[in-house]
Amino acid sequence: MTSTFIALTPTYKPVGGVVKVFDYVNHARDRGMPVRIHCPDEFDEELPLFQSDRFAPLLEDARVTFERGMRLGPEMEDIVFFSWPTHWQDIAPRLPRGMSHERVVHIIQNVRHANPKWIRGYATRLLARPMSRILIVPQVLEVVTPYLHPDSLSEVILEGHDWPYFSKQRTGGIDSPLRVAYTTWKSDVGIEVENRLGHDERFEFRSIRSTVGWPALRELYHWSDVFLATPLPEEGFYLPGLEAMAAGALVITSDAGGNRAYCHFGENCLEVQMESPDSYVSALESLADTSDLDIAAMRDSAYVTLGAHTLEAESAAFDGFLDTVEQRSSQAPR
Q1: What b/e string do you get for 71-104 counting C-beta neighbours within 10 Å, with b at 16 or more?
Q2: Helix (H) or strand (E) run with residue 67 in it
Q3: Per-residue pLDDT tens for 33-68?
Q4: How far is the C-alpha of 112 from the C-alpha of 175, rounded, in Å?
Q5: Would the pTM of this model clear 0.90, i.e. be above it?
Q6: CA–CA separation, 263 and 260 (whole Å)
Q7: Terminal-residue alpha carbon distance, the chain
Q8: Which residues of the chain have pLDDT under 50?
Q9: pLDDT digits (tens, 9 = 90+) for 292-301
Q10: Cα within 13 Å of Cα(120), Cβ side
Q11: Nearest-CA neighbor of 111 among 157, 143, 155?
Q12: Contact between residue 265 and residue 224 where contact means Cβ atoms under 8 Å apart
C-alpha cells in the first residue's frame, strides 16, 4: 500500500517556515507519494503561495489534496509531517494504535526549540518524545541535542532554498552612491541607519516595510549593492541573507546562530552587533572605502556558499531519510 504524506501547516501565508513545509511536500511528490495538506485556514487557489512557479504545480496534481482543519485520520503506513510544535496536540490523539512513532516526522527549523521560555517550554519538552526529526542546519542540532529522545532518528538535512530565483551575476566593485536595502519585518534598525546616513551623498537607501511577494523582494535585492540583514536573536536559517547573496548584494548581518550555516563573517559577509545602528553605520562606512578587489572577493565567496543550499540536494537527502524511516519502522515492535 502506498504511504500518504500528511503535512500540517499553521497557515498558507508564504513565510519562511511555511514555505519549508511546502518544499517537503514537493519532495514527497518527487518520491511519488500522494499528499494531504491540513491547515486551519481556508484553501484558495489564488493565494500568493500558489502563484509561484515553485508551488503552482500542486494545484494541478491529482495526488495532492487540501483539507481544512486538523482531523488527520492517518493510516498505519502514512507519514505525518509537521513543523509548528503545538501541532503535536492535533496529531497524537489521531494516530492509529500501534503506528510506529518513526513515521511521525518533526522538522525543527529554529534554535529557539532549546529555549525553555518559548511556548512556555512546550517545544523543548516535545524534543524528548519519540519521533523522527529533521534539523535544518548543524547549528540547530547542536542546541537541541541535550533534549532529544536518545533512540529517535534525528538527522541534519541542510536547508535548501530556491535562491536561483533571486540570482544576479555581478563582477568588480561598487559605484557611488552605495545603494543600501533593508526590510523592517523583524527589526527597525534599518530605519535608524537610514535616518543617520540618508543625507550622506555616499549612500542611497530603499526599503520594504510591508508584506510583499517574492518578485518585489527580488527587485529590491537586484537594486541594492548592500543588504542590511536583521535576523532575530534565535534563528534557524535567515532566508533574506542567502537571497541577497544570490543577487550579488553584499550582506551586513548580526550573528543569530542559525545563520552561521551560510554566513562566514569577514569572508562572504560583514558581522555587526545585533540591533546596533552604530555597528551597521560603521560597517557601511567601511564598505564605502573598501577596494573593488576586496568587494569582488566577498561577493564571489558568497556565490560559492550558495551551492550547499539547493532544493535538489535537500530532496535527495529527504528521500534517503524516508528510506531510513521505512526501514526502522518496519523493524519496530507493534
Answers
A1: ebebeebbbbbbbbbebbebbeeebeeebbbbbb
A2: strand 64-68
A3: 999 999 999 999 999 999 989 999 999 999 999 999
A4: 40
A5: yes
A6: 5
A7: 18
A8: none
A9: 999 999 999 9
A10: 1
A11: 143
A12: no
